[in-house]
Backbone:
């Protein structure tokens, strides 16, 4: 069946089974490989995208559940205010190591910051504990999130 | 940052005549590069006394620096980036000596060629591992940079007809201060190529370093925060199909029968490939491939390991340690010393099999054609990748092209090529390119695992509590014996024993034996910090036991044994001071310490751990002091330690792979758990200033944290944990 989905403000038409996870539509059908596969069971967060601004695990989100929702991926997150701040903070704090999980980390962090400009440590734990980083960059993820939140506070 | 995977640089008119006059000690050659620039070829010196043999075999360069006529500096090097910062720290060495900005150095990854790019610290195998990229490069790459600088200065001096000593290099130019003349390197490169290669070049003094020792921004980061970085799993050659697979759930089993009717009916499924011990579903996208895989009905012949359980393997190891093993180290006379000991302590320890669980699951893309084979993969051993593709296809080596990509986590997993072999086996049946992607379940259940070990120790203390005898015997798999057989000698190898021998402590009588016992039905492989990941847990826990038996403070006890290893003593003193060792803590909170010398780096850690009433363990804070010699990129050192600590805590708290009826019981991140941000401790890293050569940084933090945590649990609860992972049920507070 054919589905029209809106990704980063562009509409794409894809012909796949309705139960196909959004992750594979993005990566294999549309060629947007910034969103990563980690577990296929919403256990690691590597595949996180935004569906209408909400952090969502694309590996268990069937394409037929998307409807007219707006999908934002790592390729488009820099165009949002929160996403741009998070990306900058990630660079400033040198968060990244192997980097494979970082698309998902950035998507979760951007969603947090957009909905909560001044997250506490507990808020960060809640929003980010679904994202595994095998390189263990957690110390810097926390620092970078706080830096991005500070820049929000300064009127940004 | 530009990564270029072009073919090996060709030496335009390498002045081979100069080979005859080569000093035996010289490991840099120079000549003209194709295109008119200056080309330097380096021979990274071999370690472990193999230097003479290597030199006798003639000059064999394995890294190249090219200065193009447009001023671009290109480094071709054999190491791969997997998050450890190598793509940044190695170019820093060249940039420092060449007096150029770091961003002027462009990196080309070396294509597979074991003869050219073999890693001298890994027995000449083209590999990135064992935390040694910086250790192997430190001297020769700076020397090459200095050689190029000297030749550029000579070329300028000759052009200006002035004394080279009156010229100097700065900011990518040679300058003559007295006359104010200056010329860019690019304009001098062709002339420099005709200059004699200096026999001796002066390396910059540490106090003159501009880059080394300063935090440099990682060059690979920007692409990793905007989704454009290309990992192996991201490649998309035109027409590529996606495959996923089921391999025999029992190692050594075979496919008995396959009913693929339901799989073939899935929209987007193109083909089912049946191999001897695996079945793959080839589809338009991974969603269809996974759905097809779920629809397969496969009957397996489980083979000889059908009834194997982990307890059987541990039992065999335990049994093995009742007999003598190969002697890994002997100092003094343990037997005699034991006879005179006042206190005797003995213990057994055990560590489990561990999976790597790299965030990027195993994958490999292959296109097999009748006359050639192309492979796209992120791997730590490119020459082996090429060799297995050649062997599996039956093609000559030169018909196999391997494109290397960023690695989404290595930790030793990608020092193996089993996934590449498998992908080529599948691709042989597929018309066009196919990307074989393992599900997470397949990745965890068909890993090659950090071996399980069983250890038996005893020690004797004198009347003051000092250890007068130390005896350690352990059994388990040797990765080296399979992976680099020449390094396995007389029953021992340098990796499996690292952290068990050459301890930092003054132990007058010490005896260490190793028994190589390869487990049945489960493959083993390197895993971050390898030998030390097992040995340091055992030795530093046992040292803690000795301190407790002597009724002494764990730090004071260790310090008294470190008189002959001042660098170890210094890191221990620093870590404990910064951690506030000895300051009071609440009930069921404790501090534990460890100190080690592995990967040529001294490190001490203090973990502060809280044990709840129900036995749950939380590592609250870790303080690490490190002396890794000269620090090239301090930010990378800090990042690697933070990373390694979280990696080690994951293993200590959660990590265990078990077999039941030959099958790995863990499958995904619900049953094989990773440390998450809410469990991650605050980490402080204190770096000791040093001018010693750099030590390895990628792994040391992992081995040091584990005993620091278990020792802290002992301090908090009085329970000594001798088996990993931590058994929280043993830590419950009695009602």
Residues:
């Amino acid at each position: 069946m054919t589905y029209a989905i809106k990704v980063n403000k562009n509409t794409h038409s894809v012909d796949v089974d309705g139960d196909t996870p959004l992750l594979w539509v993005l990566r294999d059908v549309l060629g947007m490989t910034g969103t990563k596969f980690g577990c296929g069971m919403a256990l690691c967060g590597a595949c996180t995208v935004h569906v209408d601004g909400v952090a969502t695990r694309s590996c268990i989100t069937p394409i037929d559940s998307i409807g007219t929702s707006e999908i934002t991926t790592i390729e488009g997150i820099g165009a949002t205010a929160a996403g741009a701040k998070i990306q900058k903070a990630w660079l400033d704090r040198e968060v990244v190591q192997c980097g494979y999980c970082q698309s998902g980390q950035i998507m979760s962090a951007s969603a947090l910051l957009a909905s909560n400009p001044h997250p506490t440590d507990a808020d960060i734990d809640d929003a980010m504990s679904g994202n595994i980083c095998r390189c263990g960059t957690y110390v810097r993820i926390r620092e970078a999130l706080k830096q991005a939140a500070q820049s929000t506070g300064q009127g940004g | 940052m530009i990564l270029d995977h072009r073919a090996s640089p060709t030496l335009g008119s390498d002045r081979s005549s100069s080979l005859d006059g080569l000093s035996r000690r010289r490991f840099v050659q120079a000549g003209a590069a194709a295109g008119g620039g200056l080309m330097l070829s380096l021979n990274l010196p071999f370690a472990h006394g193999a230097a003479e043999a290597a030199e006798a075999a003639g000059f064999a360069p394995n890294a190249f620096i090219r200065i193009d006529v447009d001023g671009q500096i290109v480094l071709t090097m054999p190491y791969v980036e997997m998050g450890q910062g190598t793509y940044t720290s190695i170019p820093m060495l060249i940039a420092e000596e060449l007096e150029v900005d770091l961003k002027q150095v462009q990196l080309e990854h070396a294509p597979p060629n074991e003869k050219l790019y073999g890693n001298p610290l890994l027995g000449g195998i083209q590999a990135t591992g064992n935390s040694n990229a910086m250790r192997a490069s430190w001297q020769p790459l700076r020397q090459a940079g200095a050689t190029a600088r000297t030749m550029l200065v000579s070329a300028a001096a000759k052009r200006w007809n002035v004394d080279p000593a009156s010229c100097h290099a700065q900011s990518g130019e040679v300058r003559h201060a007295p006359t104010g003349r200056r010329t860019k390197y690019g304009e001098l490169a062709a002339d420099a190529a005709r200059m004699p290669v200096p026999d001796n070049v002066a390396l910059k003094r540490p106090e003159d370093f501009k880059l080394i020792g300063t935090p440099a921004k990682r060059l690979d980061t920007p692409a990793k925060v905007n989704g454009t970085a290309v990992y192996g799993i991201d490649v998309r050659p035109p027409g590529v199909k996606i495959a996923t697979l089921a391999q025999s759930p029992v190692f050594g089993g075979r496919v008995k029968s396959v009913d693929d009717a339901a799989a073939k009916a899935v929209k987007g499924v193109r083909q089912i490939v049946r191999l001897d011990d695996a079945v793959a579903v080839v589809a338009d996208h991974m969603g269809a491939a996974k759905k097809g895989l779920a629809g397969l009905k496969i009957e397996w012949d489980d083979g000889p390991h059908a009834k194997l359980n982990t307890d059987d393997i541990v039992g065999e190891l335990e049994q093995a340690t009742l007999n003598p093993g190969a002697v890994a180290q002997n100092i003094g006379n343990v037997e005699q010393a034991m006879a005179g000991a006042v206190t005797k302590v003995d213990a057994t320890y055990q560590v489990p099999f561990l999976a790597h669980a790299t965030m990027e699951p195993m994958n490999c893309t292959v296109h097999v054609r009748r006359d050639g084979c192309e492979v796209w993969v992120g791997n730590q051993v490119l020459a082996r990748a090429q060799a297995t593709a050649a062997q599996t296809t039956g093609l000559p080596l030169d018909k196999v092209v391997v494109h290397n990509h960023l690695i989404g986590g290595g930790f030793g997993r990608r020092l193996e090529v089993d996934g590449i072999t498998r992908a080529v086996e599948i691709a042989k049946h597929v018309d066009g390119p196919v990307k074989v992607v393992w599900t997470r379940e397949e990745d965890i259940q068909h890993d090659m695992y950090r071996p399980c070990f069983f250890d038996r120790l005893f020690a004797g203390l004198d009347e003051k509590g000092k250890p007068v005898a130390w005896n350690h015997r352990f059994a388990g798999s040797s990765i080296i014996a399979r992976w680099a057989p020449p390094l396995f000698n007389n029953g021992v190898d340098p990796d499996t024993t690292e952290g068990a021998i050459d301890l930092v402590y003054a132990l007058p009588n010490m005896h260490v034996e190793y028994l190589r016992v390869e487990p049945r039905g489960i493959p083993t492989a390197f895993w971050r910090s390898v030998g030390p990941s097992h040995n340091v847990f055992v030795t530093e826990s046992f040292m803690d036991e000795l301190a407790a038996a002597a009724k002494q403070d764990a730090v004071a006890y260790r310090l008294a044994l470190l008189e002959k290893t001042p660098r170890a003593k210094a890191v221990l003193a620093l870590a404990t001071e910064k951690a506030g060792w000895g300051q009071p803590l609440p009930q069921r909170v404790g501090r534990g310490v460890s100190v080690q010398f592995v990967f040529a780096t001294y490190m001490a850690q203090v973990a502060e751990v809280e044990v709840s009433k129900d036995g749950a363990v939380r590592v609250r804070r870790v303080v690490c002091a490190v002396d890794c010699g000269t620090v090239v990129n301090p930010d990378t050192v800090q990042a690697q330690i933070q990373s390694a600590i979280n990696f080690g805590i994951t293993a200590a708290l959660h990590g265990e792979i078990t077999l039941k009826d030959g099958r790995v019981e863990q499958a995904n991140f619900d049953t094989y758990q990773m440390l998450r941000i809410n469990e991650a401790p605050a980490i402080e890293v204190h770096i000791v200033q040093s001018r010693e050569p750099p030590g390895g940084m990628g792994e040391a933090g992992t081995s040091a944290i584990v005993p620091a945590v278990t020792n802290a649990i002992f301090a908090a609860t009085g329970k000594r944990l001798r088996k990993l992972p931590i058994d929280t049920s043993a830590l419950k507070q009695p009602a």
Q: What stands out?
A: Chain B touches chain A through 65 residues (CB under 8 Å). The first strand of chain B starts at residue 3 and ends at 4. Residues 1-25, 45-58 of chain B have pLDDT under 50 and may be disordered. Chain B has 20 helices and 29 strands.
